[in-house]
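Appendix B. Chain record.
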Amino acid sequence: MRRSKSCLCCVPMGTAALPIETPFALPAALPSWPASVSDGGFAKGSIDLGGLEVRQVTTFAKVWSTAQGGQDGVGATFFKPSPVPAGFSMLGHYAQPNNRPLFGHVLVGRDTSGTGALLAAPVDYTLVWSSPDGTGFFWLPTAPEGYKAVGAVVATTSDKPSLDEVRCVRADFTDACESEESVWSSDKDGFSAATLRPAVRGIDARGVHTGTFIAQSSAMPASASTLACLKNNSPSYTSGMPDLPQVNAILAAYAPQVYLHPDEPYFPSSVTWFFENGSLLYQKGNQSPTSVAADGSNLPQGGGNDGGYWLDLPVDKNQKEKVKKGDLASAKAYVQAKPMLCGTATDLVVWFFYPFNGPARAKVGLLTIPLGKIGEHVGDWEHLTLRVSNFSGELLRMYFSQHSAGTWVDASQLEYLDNRPVAYASLHGHAFYPRAGLVLQGDSRLGVGIRNDCARGSRLDTSGAGRCEVVSAEYLGAAVAEPAWLGFEREWGPREEYDIGREINRAARILPRAVRERLSQLVNKLFVGEGPTGPKMHGNWRNDEKES
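Structure tokens predicted for this chain:
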């Protein structure tokens, strides 16, 4: 669905247009998705939540805005979805900071259960806050007994909104929500607005992202619990998910372009290349390692990370150095497809394997200090996640894994190359970032931290022939056969033991003792000695991504 322009007021003459004045559109029009082989509902425009049909509205009419405060100090704008499809009801309004192009959605609903009881008008409204100039009024709907409100309403007069403005949802079709991102706040009178998301998010969670926001003030300290998100009660909640040809079409449209640093010595490779070039399987208590079959078929399956087995590099010194450097020519993106937001979105988790993770470097003021062996380990798994709307197939956002956590970036804020999103892998550590440059982990105020340097060097085009392989899609049953190596739940490299104090004292002996101690504390926090585990052992395999 191509986004059209919303009804935005022009900015005053002589002022620069704010980013939100321009609706965002992906660099290329949405492709024509392949027809489903099983009559599925992917990209059909609406999704049945079990008797409550919802559609995604991405065009808006502006209600109220401010150009002060908020993100980057340029304010925020509050909208109502417009137009609302015939027969559907508004559930709440939409809010967004002004520092980015207009890009978002809210869901609208209609009762298809035959009972007419899933939606109900509010019985009243409560005023949360009004702007000092008397142009903006924020209201929370009061739901009738047995129902929940799922969004706030904004008006331009002090008159209460019409009871027909929005609908509340029967409680059993709602789920708990939480604040997601601050949209705007006014410290002077304690007002704040924040977007909402389901409080529990994962493959089995039932909450649906509705696209609405919470408004609260010191005079009325409402919390996210005052509102709810929608809940998918359909027994076939994955009916809107893409089938395998559609997953591959999504990857053809959005598979990321990955840039490695020009000075990167440790490249990714395919798992098969790693196995074929002498990687070894060790067993606790057995001094004789075993060569790994090219397809990983002799790796022990299941059992969790019990320390009983681990992988390592070849013993031969020359071969070890060769494998450590990886093989960009063979490198692949391994994809897990999974339902998120209870089947209203698809997450395509794009995994990359590196045979070796390089040593860390610290930044102290203007100095860059190599940290010896700290940060080195065998077997490095990193990932990006594409979140795609099951209503339209549109890319919504991309997640960048960064060591033990990461960050989501909206599609409107991504960099694109050949119509596909770009990611930068940091030097040695391979954490992903959305822009080139230096990201400092630590105390940026004091200029002390671990360097994450990103720049355009070699490029891995994951949409190229043979570059992208779907290795898991549980919701598709037998359509995707998982490779044997995916079931190896132990460590892909031996545990590394660092004498952090000694390494730092040796590498940073010119620094004052207090700075060395601060650096040592930071390194102890960021680097652990355990070997990395494979994709299935990461928390995001079944849950939402962990955010920094």
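Further analysis of this model is presented in Appendix C.
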